Amino acid sequence: MLGENIKALRKARGLSQQELAGRLHVVRQTVSKWEQGLSVPDADLLVQLADCLGVPVEELLGTPAPESITPKAPQAVLADKLGALTGQLAEQNNRRRRFCKWVAIAAGVAALLMLPPLFLSLWMLGVGLPSGTSIGTIGGADGPTAIFVTGSFPWGLLMGLCGCIALVVLGIIMSRRPE
Q1: What are the pLDDT digits (tens) for 10-33?
Q2: DSSP one-letter code for 40
Q3: Dihedral class, residue 82 (left if φ above 0, else alpha if ψ from -120 to 50, else beta)
């Protein structure tokens, strides 16, 4: 919600990300990350941002005007909102880590399933096919169930196995990477 509000208010004022970043003394990528919801400004920058956009901090954070008689201190409102936004970012990072972990698990299972056919193919190449056997098609060659047996190196299985191993390594790295 904060990112959408920043973007809408920036565009309503006719400012580019670069212009807003210059006024706040940050880089354009920082403003972009705020608008995409990948990060949030700290409390000081949030106050400066609200001033640059000409709105109160509560409106920037998307909080409706309080109806109570005793309003909260601005620091308390900022602390509450920044705490909520930080919690949302932490949950997004946790979901991303869980996804990477499951990708690694699925790729590991796929790699394990590819090992027996690869070893069998390599064994048959090393030992050789029994004499009198033909290399060709088993079953009907005209249907989708045709199985081809060849005497060449199983490059497809090897590449598939390497790809699965690469996915396992990448998934482990991404699930353990500090954010």
Answers
A1: 899 898 999 999 988 899 999 998
A2: -
A3: alpha
